[in-house]
Every structure is written in C-alpha cells, then in structure tokens.
C-alpha cells in the first residue's frame, strides 16, 4: 500500500441544455481547466480524517464523529465514499487523512462536488493500489452527488471523469465528440444557489404553461441540432449566437436573475459571439464565447466591472493521478 496519492479532476460547463436535459432533450457539456485536488495520506491508527479549507471532520476508531454542523453536512457524503472503498478493498481497518484543495467555486454550476468526489475516488483507490475503471469511478461519485443534489442528471460525474466535450441525453446516453480548440470566458456572479430548488422552479414553469413549453422544447431541439453541427464544423460564431438564444429561453423560464442578466448583457457589449448562464441558474456563473484571439482582452475588460473573471480552455483529460509516494 502506498503512503500518499494525489489526484485531480476538472470542472465543467454546460454550453447548451440546462433544465431542458431533465425533460429528455440533449445537452452539450465540456470540461474546463479548473481542477479539484484531493490528497489521501496513510496515517497511524484507524481514524478517518477529512479536511477542506476550514471544514474538518474525524471519524474515530470507535465510530464516533468529531465535526461541527457545517463540516458534517458538507463532508458526510465524502466520508461515506471513503467508507465504501475501504470496506470493499481493505480487510483490516487503516487510518487515512483526506485533504481537499479545490480551485472550483462551490455552488456556481461548475460541478465542484462531482469533481471532488471523482478525485477522491481516484486518489484513495490509487493509495490502496486498486485499479478502478472510469465507469467504476463515476459510479462511486454518483452516490455523494445523489446525497447532495437529490436526483442529479449524471452529467457532472461523467464529464469530470472522462474530460473532453460530449453530448448527453437522459437516462444514460453519451456521445463523445471530436474536440475543437475553444476558449471560454467564465464570469462568476459570486452568488451560490441550490440546484434542486431551481430544477423545481423550471418544472413548475413547464406544468403551468405546458403548451408554451412544448413549443420551447421543439425550438430547443432544432437549435441544438444547428449548434452541434456548428461546433463540429468549427463555426464558433454560430455556436455562440445559439448559446445566447438558449440563455434567453432559460431567462423566460424564470431561472435567471437580474445580476446574471447584467453580466450577459455586459459580455455581449464586448462584441463576443454569445453569452449565457451555465448550470441551474439563480446565481453561479455566466459563460461567454469570444473571438478566440480576443479572449484575454475581453476578460480583462470584464474584470473592470466583475471581480471573478477568467479564461478557460477545454481540456481533453478528465480525472488523473498527479503524485504517489
């Protein structure tokens, strides 16, 4: 058994299809080059420790847990993942310290919890010298996601495990695409939101206006076909324009906010191809697709109005082991 293993997994953004994907439509999703890092360290004794910034919990050998309420609420799903791996692959109890260091903003629609879960499964299995397939890693990460979000679509664990860009359709259809180079600008509103409440809000919209939603869904399906063809052809300008239309549809459905709308409008003033909210809405982030040679300049101009702005590329690689000792 190794003494230390460190793994990272990427964040994600949804380019097209938030909420519509819950109702059977396809979504276009890509990994981005923000990563969550998890380090697993073998320690003396039989306690399990988890630490993420100021959050901390320890499960003593007698089964008791030391943690404040906030730490326990956040770290309990990850402790369950550790327990599952250890019970399945270790015959005698061991001590493990888990250190989480994520660059991915929490509650921002970028898949932070899934990236941490996948990186944890990868790091701990590497520490135990157990070879898990990507499908096994994804399956293990889905359990914390279900505990955190209720009924997640499954997009986040898949994209953070595999990386790249793909088309997803429920219940479990994935199509990995040939990747074209693409830079995105991400603007974080700084407002955290709860996915479950926003999914419910969108569902309420579909139930209150079934005929309108039927028309919107038909329009979205046509929009998606053209957007996918545009991406595959390297036509980022058309892709960006259609992303903006999709964003307007989400705004009509009531999952945007005035702050997100202001960020979208400020981005569009920079002569970019398109901008929209990403994730469930209600806060979180806006993504903007700029002319590729102007990404850094546009991001710098947006920083004059919004503090949390960065340029991200779309990596091919998903979860990976960074270090073992």
From TrEMBL:
SUPFAM superfamilies: GHMP Kinase, C-terminal domain, Ribosomal protein S5 domain 2-like. GO terms for molecular function: ATP binding; mevalonate kinase activity. It is found in: Cytoplasm. The keyword Magnesium applies. Residues 88-164 form the GHMP kinase N-terminal domain. This is mevalonate kinase. Keywords: ATP-binding, Cytoplasm, Kinase, Lipid biosynthesis, Lipid metabolism, Magnesium, Nucleotide-binding, Transferase. Its main location: cytoplasm. It comes from the Archaea. GO terms for cellular component: cytosol. The lineage of its organism: Archaea, Nitrososphaerota, Candidatus Caldarchaeales, Candidatus Caldarchaeaceae, Candidatus Caldarchaeum. One of its GO terms (biological process) is isopentenyl diphosphate biosynthetic process, mevalonate pathway. Residues 232-306 form the GHMP kinase C-terminal domain. The gene is mvk.
């Amino acid at each position: 058994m190794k003494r230390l293993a460190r793994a990272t997994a990427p964040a994600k953004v949804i380019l097209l299809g938030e909420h519509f994907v819950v109702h059977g439509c396809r979504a276009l999703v890509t990994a981005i080059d923000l990563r969550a890092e998890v380090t697993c360290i073998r320690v003396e004794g039989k306690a399990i420790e988890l630490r993420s910034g100021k959050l901390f919990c320890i499960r003593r050998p007698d089964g008791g847990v030391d943690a404040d309420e906030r730490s326990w609420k956040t770290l309990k799903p990850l402790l369950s993942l550790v327990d599952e791996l250890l019970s399945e692959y270790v015959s005698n109890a061991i001590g493990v310290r888990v250190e989480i260091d994520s660059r991915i903003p929490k509650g921002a629609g970028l898949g932070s919890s899934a990236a941490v879960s996948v990186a944890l499964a990868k790091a701990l299995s590497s520490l135990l010298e157990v070879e898990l397939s990507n499908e096994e890693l994804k399956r293990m990460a889905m359990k914390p996601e279900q505990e955190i979000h209720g009924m997640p679509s499954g997009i986040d664990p898949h994209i953070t495990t595999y990386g790249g860009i793909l088309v997803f359709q429920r219940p479990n259809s994935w199509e990995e695409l040939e990747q074209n180079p693409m830079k995105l600008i991400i603007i974080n509103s700084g407002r955290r939101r709860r996915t479950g409440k926003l999914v419910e809000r969108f569902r309420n919209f579909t139930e209150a206006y079934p005929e309108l939603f039927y028309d919107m869904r038909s329009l979205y399906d046509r929009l998606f076909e053209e957007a996918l063809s545009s991406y595959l052809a390297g036509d980022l300008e058309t892709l960006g324009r259609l992303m903006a239309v999709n964003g307007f549809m989400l705004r009509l459905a009531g999952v945007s906010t005035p702050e997100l709308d202001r960020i979208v409008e400020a981005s569009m003033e920079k002569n970019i191809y398109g901008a929209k909210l990403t994730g469930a809405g209600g806060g979180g982030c806006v993504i903007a697709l700029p002319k590729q040679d102007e990404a850094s300049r546009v991001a710098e101009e947006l920083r004059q109005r919004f503090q949390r702005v960065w340029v991200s590329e779309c990596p091919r690689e998903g979860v990976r082991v960074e270090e073992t000792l």
